[in-house]
Amino acid sequence: MFSIKTSVFLGLFAAFAAVNAAPAANADHSYAIQYDRRTGQPVPNSRRDGPSTTDLLNSCPGSSKKSSVQGADNCKWSSDGNAGSQYTKTKVIGEPIENCGNLKTNVTHTFSESTTFTSTFSLTETSEVDFPGISASLTSGISHTTTEAHGNDFSMDVPPGQHGQFTAVQYYQPQNGHVFINYGDKVDGHYYWTVYNVHLDAPSGEPVTQPEYKGCGEAL
Ligand SMILES: *[C@@H]1O[C@H](CO)[C@@H](O)[C@H](O)[C@H]1NC(C)=O
């Protein structure tokens, strides 16, 4: 099982590997490298026909996908930097509010609902990895992977002839990184593996909420 000793070692190992950036290999594809337990150095030509990156990642705790590799003790995500510019995702809090009948007065609605923005992991060349399952174990080290936007009793007045909605806008920052994987027993000769070129789309900062109004003839 995962011991404190292993944990301390993995910490040192992580610090080492963070300083020594990912070995330059085909930049668009994920690949896996074995590390020597004693020296913390990559094992030369270690990839051979070992387990696939998919099997390595699916051996992480929480994955629901089958893996040919034994269950890993620990998987840790580490960012190698931004991969592209920020973009936004918008979500509607609660339901849109209509005032499109014959009312001459405002329709007022108070929002108490909330919505969440989550992170997603992916690999360029495969979708066969259970990232939702393993993300909890992968994300240690990231300050937050999920943000929440609350209605907070925001009261919306929708005038006659309009409809409106209360939206939350979240910035996302795409990143590339690698995943350290630690096994209780050797996998193809080694306790430590690292999968490179894993992509993460994570929320950046907190979501911003705002009301939005349109005439009844226009789509929200
Ligand atoms: C109706 O809502 C608008 C804002 O959308 C507000 O300016 C106006 O005062 C409201 N009217 C009444 C009667 O509450």
What would your notes on this structure say?
The chain has 220 residues and is mainly beta. The protein has one domain (4-215). The chain contains 3 helices and 10 strands, in the order αβαβββββαββββ. The strands form 3 sheets. Strands 1, 2, 3, 6, 9 and 10 form a 6-stranded antiparallel β-sheet that branches. The chain is elongated. The N and C termini lie far apart (53 Å). 2-acetamido-2-deoxy-beta-D-glucopyranose binds at residues 106, 157, 159.
Helix count equals 3
Query: DSSP strand (E) fraction?
Result: over 45%
Order of helices and strands: HEHEEEEEHEEEE
Distance, first to last CA: 53 Å
Unique ligands: 2-acetamido-2-deoxy-beta-D-glucopyranose
Largest sheet: 6 strands, antiparallel
What is the CA-atom radius of gyration, in angstroms? 23 Å
Q: How much helix is in the residues?
A: 10-25%
Shape: elongated
